[in-house]
């Protein structure tokens, strides 16, 4: 089943902008492959976590779910893999909790800049366009925007990803200003809702408009996030999870003035504590399966949910690969080709086994 997730990612990467949304594409692809990868099993939540979390599962097997035994069960009974999956979900919980706050703050920041300097209210004169981390020969209004963006940058002497931005839009779009404080690859992003956790955390880390008692709190979560995304085996140890949990708790505490962050903190704790282990009842299941009462049955959810979790994390890892190259089109193409060819290689090579080879992103040597 794991190989199906990679296939979904490749479809999404190559799809036109007018195609279905990411979640819709994942659902469509998963539905088309359910019979072959055994994703039609039903998961029954038995734990005390909230309804939207997947607490210990009972997988009810039928004639179309034999692959669950070999793949889904293996992964969700691998403690370090579950750590990786839960850590990734925590990033999404954190991102969702920050979206409205960050968007509101950047609107206020943008308005404040416009009120301070009249030149910033003037339109671009020459359709200024950056090249990579360079923005040279900009018109007078765009040069002024560049100046104030750097004034509010905590590390103005570092690499600024000007290619994220469209300078002619700085005057009218607050998010074009926000993208100057983010990692590479934000050029097509038009709002907070299209950003991942890394982009939002880097914005908080580098833009002086965001004030916290401990500026390192965002950097600590960013470091953990990068370690998670660069895990070539999709597995992290319990010791790492303790460090990650502490970093998340510290960050949430720094933003306790945001009303929604209290709920975010609880959701993160629930996710870190949830048990994704699987118990399997086959066709020869005993009467013990009947112990699932009506209230528990209301928490039924498809295994497709877990598939979507995995696919979303894989997509983010792939995007990191595509944006990690130096500022040149040739380097971008090379990294993209290497990443995609590696995923395709493992997709073709993958066989049913207790440890699917697709746990690795490494380029094959043969």
Describe the model.
Residues 1-19 form the signal peptide. There is one protein chain. The chain is mainly alpha-helical. The protein has two domains: 2-77 and 277-359, no CATH class; 88-268, no CATH class. 53% of the residues lie in helices and 4% in strands. It has 13 helices and four strands. Strands 3-2-1-4 form a four-stranded mixed beta sheet, with helices on one face. Residues 1-64, 279-302 and 334-366 have low confidence and may be disordered.
Which secondary structure elements does this structure contain, and how are they paired or packed?
Blueprint: H1 2-14, H2 22-37, E1 42-45, E2 57-60, H3 67-76, H4 79-116, H5 140-151, H6 174-178, H7 197-206, H8 216-229, H9 238-254, H10 261-273, E3 278-281, H11 294-297, E4 301-302, H12 304-323, H13 329-349
Parallel strand pairs: 2-3
Antiparallel strand pairs: 1-2, 1-4
Q: How many E strands?
A: 4
Whole-number total of structural domains: 2
Query: Alpha-carbon distance between the termini?
Result: 24 Å
Overall spatial form:
elongated
Biggest β-sheet strands, sense, barrel: 4 strands, mixed
> What's the gyration radius in Å?
23 Å
Q: What structural class should be given to the helix and strand makeup?
A: mainly alpha
Low-confidence stretches: 1-64, 279-302, 334-366
Strand order of the largest sheet: 3-2-1-4
Encode the helix/strand succession as letters: HHEEHHHHHHHHEHEHH
Residues in helix, %: 40-55%
Count up the helices. Answer: 13
InterPro entries: DUF4559
Keywords: Signal
Pfam family, one: DUF4559
């Amino acid at each position: 089943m794991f190989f199906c997730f990679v296939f979904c990612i490749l479809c999404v990467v190559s799809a036109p902008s007018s195609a279905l949304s990411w979640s819709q594409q994942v659902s469509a692809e998963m539905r088309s492959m359910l019979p072959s990868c055994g994703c039609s099993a039903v998961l029954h939540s038995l734990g005390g976590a909230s309804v939207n979390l997947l607490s210990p599962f009972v997988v009810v097997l039928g004639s179309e779910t034999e692959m669950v035994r070999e793949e889904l069960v293996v992964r969700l009974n691998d403690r370090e893999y579950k750590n990786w999956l839960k850590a990734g979900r925590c990033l999404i919980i954190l991102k969702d909790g920050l979206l409205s706050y960050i968007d509101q703050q950047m609107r206020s920041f943008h308005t404040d800049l416009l009120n301070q300097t009249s030149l910033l209210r003037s339109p671009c004169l020459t359709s200024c366009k950056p090249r990579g981390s360079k923005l040279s020969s900009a018109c007078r209004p765009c040069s002024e925007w560049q100046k104030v963006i750097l004034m509010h940058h905590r590390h103005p002497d570092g690499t600024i990803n000007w290619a994220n931005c469209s300078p002619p839009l700085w005057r009218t779009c607050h998010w074009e200003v926000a993208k100057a404080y983010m990692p590479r690859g934000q050029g097509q992003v038009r709002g907070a809702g299209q950003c991942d956790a890394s982009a939002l955390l880097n914005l908080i880390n580098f833009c002086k408009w965001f004030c916290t008692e401990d500026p390192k709190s965002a950097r600590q979560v960013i470091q953990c996030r990068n370690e998670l995304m660069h895990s070539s085996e999709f597995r992290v140890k319990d010791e790492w999870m303790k460090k990650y949990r502490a970093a998340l708790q510290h960050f949430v505490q720094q933003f306790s003035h945001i009303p929604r962050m209290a709920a975010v903190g609880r959701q993160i704790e629930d996710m870190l504590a949830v048990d994704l282990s699987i118990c399997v009842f086959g066709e020869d299941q005993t009467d013990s399966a009947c112990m699932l009462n009506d209230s528990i049955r209301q928490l039924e959810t498809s295994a497709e949910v877990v598939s979507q979790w995995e696919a979303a994390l894989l997509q983010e890892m792939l995007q990191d690969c595509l944006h990690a190259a130096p500022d040149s089109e040739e380097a971008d193409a090379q990294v993209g080709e290497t990443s995609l060819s590696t995923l395709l290689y493992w997709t073709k090579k993958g066989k049913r086994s207790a440890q699917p080879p697709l746990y690795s992103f490494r380029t094959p040597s043969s």
